[in-house]
Fold this protein.
Amino acid sequence: MRRRGLDFRRPVRKRFPNVVWWTVCGILVLVLIVVLSREGQTESKPTISRKPYRRDRIMEGVTVTDEMLSSNSVTRQLTDQISLAKAFVVIAKESNNLQFAWELSAQIRNSQALLSNAATRRTPLTVGESETAIRDMALLLYQAQQLHYDSATMLMRLRAKIQTLEEQMSSANEKSSKYGQIAAEEVPKSLYCLGVRLTTEWFGNPNLQKKHRERKQMDAKLKDNSMYHFCIFSDNILASSVVVNSTALNSKNPDKIVFHLVTDEINYAAMKAWFTVNSFRGVAVEVQKFEDFKWLNASYVPVLKQLQDSETQSYYFSGHNDDGRTPIKFRNPKYLSMLNHLRFYIPEVYPALKKVVFLDDDIVVQKDLSGLFSIDLNGNVNGAVETCMETFHRYHKYLNYSHPLIRSHFDPDACGWAFGMNVFDLVAWRKRNVTGIYHYWQERNVDRTLWKLGTLPPGLLTFYGLTEALDPSWHVLGLGYTNVDSQLIEKGAVLHFNGNSKPWLKIGIEKYKPLWEKYVDYSHPLLQQCNFH
Ligand SMILES: *[C@@H]1O[C@H](CO)[C@@H](O)[C@H](O)[C@H]1NC(C)=O
Ligand SMILES: *[C@@H]1O[C@H](CO)[C@@H](O)[C@H](O)[C@H]1NC(C)=O
Ligand SMILES: *[C@@H]1O[C@H](CO)[C@@H](O)[C@H](O)[C@H]1NC(C)=O
Ligand SMILES: *[C@@H]1O[C@H](CO)[C@@H](O)[C@H](O)[C@H]1NC(C)=O
């Protein structure tokens, strides 16, 4: 049911006159140049680790290793990696990054040698002997992504090649993929396609822009504190659409709902186009891009300041800085993404608002959420569902209790809670200077000794003693990595696909996908053209 049809081959260009096509390509190339130049230093030099990852290093502390070792066919993984790498070699050459092309080619030869050795001796490759090769290659492929080699522009230039890849990839059993993390982050080609189509639409269709301006006249709603305000920070159009659509469809009062979406420069036009073309039962949708926020600068925001620091850059982008002691997933630059950190600046993003419900983009809504806005937070800033039913989701699990600052401030047995569906009282937030508390901790963590990964640990520090526990049925977690009790799912107001198996990916957990897909209109012409399903 979910197999990609062969009509992906259908030539895309036919649908547009050549002039339009080239204009769009031009615009996208410009956008790409802007993006690359913003990321400046990091992107312009090859930041590839040449040091092979020794096995003993990998074994140390990597929680993903166990699941990695149980994967069933390393040969298939090697083959998949090789075909992907070959495409990237072509792109790297086209982009004149010869150094990177050379490194990819060397790694391809290395992996091919392994395969041919195994073929000659007629016994399958073992995990042990291919582990280093697979990991080194994964790192390169990941770098390629960071260089935007799989962005929409490149996708179009290499349409033919990518199509072949697509077919090869879909035959692979990705659930057993050793590189779940990387597979999970490779945004599917269809999503890129959707972004490109919508961007084309936006720039090519003045009516759309006009309609968008007209809708903006609902401006009054955007700052009206008698409305129900929701915010999403996302670069994923389809996921955001599902959040908005599912909230709207399950709401008793959709005309009282306002969605505030923040995305990035690349997805800005596409998001505006999507939310103008479609309507969601009268729900108001505002789209902004974080690049427009003047206050979001390195003199105010520690994460940005830390990113300018070259040591931090090499830690996240090259990977050999600490002798490989830190597992690769902890060094994922995704965790530096400003869209991820915006959750700590909600009062700055919405200076006029008093209460906002924050939603992650990997959730789906099943019930009316208006009740959230009348819950008494008892003077607290953050209303969240606690996660310490399982003993391991307590503070000591996320923070470094060898550090005196942590030991002296936080109870190791304090209950963790979840980001993804949070009620924020912005009045209390401003009064308690919560952004200041966040800055304090983020600045203390410049050497990453307090915590390593993500936004939850700084969240636990920031909202310590300022969090009100909500009824667990408001926010049901785990649909992206584990089995969740079916009664919990049924009763849940918000279902969260946290974990790697996002419902829009092929590696999504099949039995949970329908809960999300229900809110996707697969018959929509744009989705059809981009071969969703
Ligand atoms: C950076 O942000 C601060 C605090 O919001 C603001 O006062 C300052 O003007 C901003 N700087 C620039 C260069 O925009
Ligand atoms: C908020 O906290 C920051 C950092 O801790 C501090 O510099 C600032 O003065 C505080 N602001 C207020 C209004 O208390
Ligand atoms: C935890 O904190 C201690 C004390 O600052 C530090 O020596 C140690 O390296 C930290 N652990 C990690 C894993 O960062
Ligand atoms: C929203 O979900 C409904 C219900 O499944 C679906 O019919 C509709 O097409 C969706 N709207 C969009 C814009 O995806």
Summary: The chain has two domains: 71-149, 189-529. Residues 71-149 form one domain.
